[in-house]
Amino acid sequence: MGKVAVGAAVVCAAAVCAAAALVVRHRMQSSGRWARAMAILREVEEKCGTPISKLRQVADAMTVEMHAGLASEGGSKLKMLISYVDNLPTGERERMGKVAVGAAVVCAAAVCAAAALVVRHRMQSSGRWARAMAILREVEEKCGTPISKLRQVADAMTVEMHAGLASEGGSKLKMLISYVDNLPTGDEKGLFYALDLGGTNFRVLRVQLGGKDKSVVNQEFDEVSIPPHLMTGTSEELFDFIARALAKFVATEGEGFHPAPGRQRELGFTFSFPVRQLSISSGTLIKWTKGFNIEDAVGQDVVGELTKSMEKIGLDMRVAALVNDTIGTLAGGRYHNQDVAAAVILGTGTNAAYVERAHAIPKWHGLLPKSGEMVINMEWGNFRSSHLPLTEYDQALDVESLNPGEQIFEKIISGMYLGEIVRRVLSRMAEEADFFGDTVPPKLQIPFILRTPDMSAMHHDTSPDLRVVGGKLKDILEISNTSLKTRKTIVELCDIVATRGARLSAAGIFGILKKLGRDTVRDGEKQKSVIALDGGLYEHYNKFSACMESTLKELLGGEIAESIVIEHSNDGSGIGAALLAASHSQYVGVEES
C-alpha cells in the first residue's frame, strides 16, 4: 500500500507541475511583458498552495479511500491489492519504506526543477526583450523631430547663412562664392565633357548640346570605382588614376563625339568637396569629406593637380569650369526650368547651393555681376546647432570618424552614415539585451558593414515574413534564424533613423527658403520656387524622399506649399558641369564648323 500511495502522489505532483509549466510557457509565449509573467507565476503559486489544513484533508481522503479499497474490489480509486506476502525480515519494512519515499522525493524534485528552469528561461528572455525595447524607445525619443524642433533648426540654418555671407569663418556654414553668376539658359551648343568626382565613385561624361531647340542631343558616360587605398593616399596617385580613366573614356569616343578640328577638348569638373574658389576654373581644397583623407592635396588647386596628371599622359583637355556637385545640379536644373532657385544633394554626402542676390553678400568685395546674382555653395553638411537631435551613437560615430567635430549635419542625414547608425544601435542591443542570442555576432562589430542601401532594402520590405530583412541579416552579418519579432524591430529602427534624416533635410531646405523670403506669400503673390534634388539617397530611398517632401509641406503650410516644387534633377551634377563648361568655353562666340 505504501508503494501505491507514494506512486500516486508522485504521479499527481508530476502532473500538476507539468501542467503548471505548460500554462506558464503558453502564457509567456503570448506576452513578453514582465508584469504579465509575474501574474501568471503568482497564479500558479496560489493554485499550487499546500497549507497544512489542505494536507490534512488529503490525508483524510487517502485514509477513506484505503478503507473503501480494502472493503471490496473496485470500491476505490486505490486498488489496495493483496500481495500474499505475510512475513518480512525484521527491519525490512522500515528500510523499504524509506527507499520508496526517497525515490519519490528525487523524482518530484527533478520534475519541479525542470519546471523552474523553463520558467526562469522564459523570464530571462522576457527581461532581455524588455531591455532591447527600452534601447529602441530611447533612440526613438532622442531622434524625435517634432515640427517645433524643425522650425528651430530652420531658424538656426538661416542665422548661420547670414553669418557665413558676412565674413569668412563667421559661421559653420562656409557659404562659398562660386563665381557662377550666369546659369544656363538652354542656348548652349557644342561638344563638352564632364568629370564628376563626388564620393567612392566618379563618372566621366560627354555631352552634345544642340542649342535652344534641341537641348541635349546625345550623351554617354562611364562610372569608375575608386580603390579604397587611393582615398587616403597621395594627391598625385588619385589624380593620375582619374586622368587615366578619363583618357580611356576619350579613346572610346564614336564618330559623333569628336571635337571640331583645331579645338581643344573642354571639361566641366564637378568636385564635390569644400573648395575655396579662386575663379570659375580654379580653387584650392579646404578639406576632405566622405571618407577621403589625402593630406598633401589640402590647400592645393585641384584643377592644377588634375591638369598635371592629364599633361603627364598627353591628354589635351582644358578644365573650363570647376564646380561643386550641388552647383552642377543647380545649373542642370536651371537649364530645364528657369524657376529653379536652389539645389540639394542627398547621396553619399549632402550639400546645398542656391542663387543669392549679389548685394546680400557682404564679404563679396569685387564688382557686382551684371546679372545681380551669385550662386552660393553652402557646404551645409558642416551645419550644427544645439537644436539638432543628436544621440550617443552619433557622438561616438563622430569621435571615431576621420573628421571629428566636423560635418555633423551630414553625419545624421546622408547616405554614408545612416546604415552605420543603425548598426551601432543593433550592436548595443546585441551586447546589452542578447538581441541576436547569447553572443554578439562578430560581423556586427565591423564599422560601416551595414550600408544605407541595405538599410533601405530592409526598411522597404513588405513581405509577410520580412524575408528581405532576414536575408540581409544572414548575408551581411551572418545572423540566421531570427524571429519575425526581431525583424520587425529592425524595420522600426530603420524607420526611426531614416525619418530623422529626412525631416532634418526638409528643415534645411525650409531654412534656405526663409533666407530667400520664399517661405511666405508676399504682396498677395505666390512666387513659384523649384528645388532641384539629386543623389542616390533621394533617388533610391523612397521612404526617405517621401518623408522629406511631406515634412517640407508641413513646414510651409498649405497655401505656400503649392508654390514650392521639388524636382529630381537627374544626373544634374554631370550634365550641369558640362553646361557650365559650355557657358565658360574659350570658344564662346565662335561659330561651330
Description:
The protein is α/β, with parallel strands linked by helices. Among the domains are: 2-139, no CATH class; 177-336 and 570-583, Nucleotidyltransferase, domain 5, CATH 3.30.420.40. It contains 18 helices and 13 strands. The strands form 3 sheets. The protein has a 6-stranded mixed β-sheet with strand order 1-11-10-9-12-13. Strand 6 (275-279) and strand 7 (282-285) form a beta hairpin. Helix 6 (235-251) packs across helix 7 (302-312) and helix 11 runs antiparallel to helix 14. The model is unreliable at 26-31 and 103-122 (pLDDT under 50).
The assigned structural class equals alpha/beta
Helix content: 40-55%
For this structure, what is the CATH homologous superfamily of the domain at 177-336 and 570-583? ATPase, nucleotide binding domain
Task: Characterize the biggest β-sheet.
Answer: 6 strands, mixed
Report the end-to-end length measured between terminal Cα atoms.
120 Å
Secondary-structure map:
Blueprint: H1 2-30, H2 34-47, H3 52-71, H4 92-142, H5 147-166, E1 176-177, E2 189-197, E3 201-210, E4 216-225, H6 235-251, E5 265-271, E6 275-279, E7 282-285, H7 302-312, E8 317-323, H8 325-336, E9 340-346, E10 350-357, E11 373-377, H9 392-399, H10 408-413, H11 418-433, H12 452-459, H13 467-477, H14 484-515, E12 529-534, H15 536-540, H16 542-556, H17 558-561, E13 564-568, H18 572-583
Parallel strand pairs: 2-5, 5-8, 9-12, 12-13
Antiparallel strand pairs: 1-11, 2-3, 3-4, 6-7, 9-10, 10-11
Helix pairs in contact: 1-2, 1-4, 4-11, 4-14, 5-14, 6-7, 8-18, 11-12, 11-14, 12-14, 14-16
Membrane topology: Single-pass membrane protein
Pfam families: Hexokinase_1 (PF00349), Hexokinase_2 (PF03727)
Domain Hexokinase C-terminal: 342-582
